[in-house]
Design a protein that fits this description.
It is a single chain. The chain has a single domain, classed as Penicillin V Acylase, Chain A. Helix content is 19%, strand content 32%. The strands form 2 sheets. Strands 3-4-5-6-7-8-9 form a 7-stranded antiparallel beta sheet. The chain has a 5-stranded antiparallel beta sheet with strand order 10-1-2-11-12, with helices on one face. The C terminus is likely disordered.
């Protein structure tokens, strides 16, 4: 179901540090992180719908990559309502923002919310970050700080969001404050993203799904589990991709930034490029 943590405007040289776990059905065809040949997007790709869950604007030129600082992430909203085949892919929200020219706020205000199943969308550039969903949360700028969003309302405090928030504050943000070099803090970030501690029964949110499934989904990292009541209990769902997205200022004297994503895939179910 996914979880995203966003350290926004906490560090002068790193205005954005975004950590993401993508949870998905294991057999859903997926391409790992790559430069898309048909669009100015650097991201993984959902081969079933053609969209993505996390990406940056990037266009491959002859000898360099051209960027404009745009980035986006989308998460499903879990409320027990099944997606309809008539609804547009939520991953298209990411691709349309990354390839568009509207400001994050203008884009968010002009989404036809009824065309999509439930979603939380976080979009931004070097100067503005916006969160919006189609479950009653109007487009809202993110304030400078640490934001952790999963599959409920952006302000919801679920066990997994608070566990990730707490560990980031204790184990990752202090490292970034000491040393911005990726090799210094990113191993700790991936370790925190790999936390598979589940909530107790009393800590589970009520999202309209069975409590046993709710508990399986309650950890930051979801170990492969069987969600479809198969007699053989073969795992069908889990965390597929872990990613870190950063914006780094090119020069302290200007606002130019470089966007970068690194990802690691879980298991043999993803296509390799």
């Amino acid at each position: 179901m996914c979880i995203v943590a966003i350290a926004w405007q906490l560090f002068d040289e790193l205005p954005l540090v975004l950590l993401s776990n993508r949870d998905e059905f294991l057999q859903r065809p997926t391409e790992p992180l790559h430069q898309w040949p048909d669009q100015p997007i650097y991201a993984g790709r959902d081969c079933q719908s053609g969209g993505t869950w996390l990406g940056i604007h990037q266009e491959q030129q002859q000898n360099f990559q051209q960027q404009n600082g745009r980035w986006a992430a989308v998460l499903n909203f879990r409320d027990g309502v099944q997606a309809s085949s008539d609804e547009r892919s939520r991953g298209a929200l990411v691709t349309e923002f990354l390839t568009g020219k509207s400001s994050p706020m203008d884009f968010a205000r002009n989404i036809n919310l009824q065309e999509y199943a439930g979603f939380n969308l976080i979009i931004g550039d070097a100067t503005q970050a916006i969160v919006v969903n189609n479950r009653g949360h109007a487009p809202t700028p993110l304030y400078a700080g640490l934001h952790v969003i999963s599959n409920g309302q952006p302000e919801d405090s679920w066990f997994k969001t608070e566990r990730l928030r707490g560990r980031l504050r204790q184990e990752v943000l202090p490292l970034i404050a000491e040393n911005r070099s990726p090799e210094y803090w990113q191993p700790a970030a991936f370790d925190v993203l790999s936390d598979h501690t589940q909530a107790s029964a009393g800590q589970l949110p009520d999202t309209g799904v069975d409590s046993k499934i709710e508990q399986m989904l309650s950890s930051v990292y979801i170990e492969p589990v069987a969600l479809n009541n198969r007699a053989d209990n073969v795992p069908t769902y889990g965390t597929r991709t872990q990613s870190i997205l950063t914006l780094t200022k090119d020069d302290e004297k200007n606002s130019n930034v470089t966007a970068k994503i690194i990802s690691r895939e879980s298991g043999p179910h993803s296509k390799q490029s």
